[in-house]
Amino acid sequence: xxxxxxxxxxxxxxxxxxxxxxxxxxxxxxxxxxxxxxxxxxxxxxxxxxxxxxxxxxxxxxxxxxxxxxxxxxxxxxxxxxxxxxxxxxxxxxxxxxxxxxxxxxxxxxxxxxxxxxxxxxxxxxxxxxxxxxxxxxxxxxxxxxxxxxxxxxxxxxxxxxxxxxxxxxxxxxxxxx
Length: 178
Description:
The structure is a single chain. The protein has 178 residues and is mainly alpha-helical. 72% of the residues lie in helices and 0% in strands. It has helices spanning 2-14, 24-40, 43-53, 62-89, 92-98, 116-129, 132-146, 153-176.
C-alpha cells in the first residue's frame, strides 16, 4: 500500500498540478483503490496471494522450507492487515484526494493555518512511521538478510535490532512534538 501511495503521489507531481482531477485520472485512482480494498477483505484472495508467494520457498534448502513458508505467510498476512487498516482509516476517496489525483472539496487556507494536504500527508507519514507492525516488518526483513552473512549473523541481528529500535524511538519522539 505504501508503494501504491508513493506511486500515486509521484504520478500527481510528475504531471504538475495540471492533472484533470475531475476526469479519468481520478476515476482510475478511485477504482484501483476500491479494487485493492475489496481484494484485501477477501480471504480467498489472501490465500491465493499466500499460495503463490510461498512458491519461492521451493528454492530454499529442505531444512528451511517450513521456516520459509511460515515467514512468507506471516509477511503476507501482515501486509494484508496493514492495507486493510489503512483503507479503513482512509477510504479511496480520501487517499486519492491526499495524493492530488482527485479534487478536494474544501479549500486550502494560507492565513497561518496548515493546509489540508499537509496535515493529510503528515498523518499518513506518522501512521506508517510509528506503526509497530511496520517496525516489526522492517526488523524481520533485515534479520532475514542477516542470515545471509554466515558467521556474522548474530552480530548483524543484534545491530539491526538496536538500530531499528533506536530509529523508531527517535521517530516517535519527533512525532510526539507535533
